[in-house]
């Protein structure tokens, strides 16, 4: 293969602009018009009435989630971040408490603990699935630990059975951050239903979306009620509910609008077909890339279903002889999105490095009686750091309206770059 690489001035394989991910159709538009014609854009009232629980479309969305996932309770919120905050608050955590979560995820998996006055402790991740490593989690449990937040990252289930056993053993809550894995399965059970609660996202980047928004699902009545109280100014309602335990029932405004819920309801109907589409493209990409030395395609945990929010692979520079960052740039030049690493490990952000959050005294870090011994230094999660800095690559090039033909071209770009690596290395050097 002697084609000139695009990064060296040759013709790129793909010249078309990457199409936007847009699964919104006439059905969503029609549902929004119904809401507009009705004129009630939010059904919520912050008081002890039926409207405390939201409007028609919000309740419909919650009922759809309860039915589909076979759970007792669902609480719609205005974002998955809000959902994580609400459900963590509902567990009763506060100043001095700790949660254990992943350092390799969206920041809210950890920062929502800070908003409760607790602090996150970061466990390392598994080398091949990028989810929380249960062995690392167990080593980090302290008398202050109250919750494990497992992130079902990139569309793959965490080792939820092992994490649940740890939670039961130590009397902890297990919360699933399921923002990236709607419809994924673990041992025939949907992710989000295995822990004490699961949180879903409808952010604009997600498989199903309504711009923003999310849903909490649980079989725990207390968690559901307290999350709903936080969603809608609960301090104004708790007295009328005759609750004895009012810990963490002061609320904010995490309410979902009727228009968002209308769109989310239609999108939810499309979840299975959209996941099937991604799986089809991802499986085809795997069939092509697994033939290339130095590229390790996604591992799917046994008896699990991967729904591919991202397609993530591992890169071995010792085999390809091309530095990862250079390889990524070469693939990008051929017209395909590829990224080296995901996010910098969360604990390396200034917030954790300086242990500064609310006010100048370092709260909530300074309130923890283990503050001096808790480290967020580089090196605390070596697997995470090695994967991020050296090996992990990811792409979102698996979404509709992309086709199998697009996937063929993408895989061909890998072959083209590696077949011309001598020219690439000579030119760059």
Describe the protein in words:
The chain is 36% helix and 13% strand. With 429 residues, it is α/β, with parallel strands linked by helices. The chain has helices at residues 26-38, 56-69, 80-90, 108-114, 134-140, 160-169, 221-231, 258-269, 271-289, 317-320, 324-333, 350-353, 382-391, 404-419, 421-428; strands at residues 73-77, 98-101, 119-122, 145-151, 173-177, 185-186, 189-190, 197-201, 214-218, 295-296, 304-305, 311-315, 339-340, 392-395. The strands form three sheets. A seven-stranded mixed β-sheet has the order 1-9-8-5-4-2-3, sandwiched between helices. Strands 10-12-14-13 form a four-stranded antiparallel β-sheet. Strands 7-6-11 form a three-stranded antiparallel β-sheet, with no helix packed on it. The chain starts with 25 loop residues before the first helix and ends with a helix. Helix 1 runs antiparallel to helix 8, helix 3 packs across helix 7 (221-231) and helix 9 (271-289) packs parallel to helix 14. It is built from 15 helices and 14 strands.
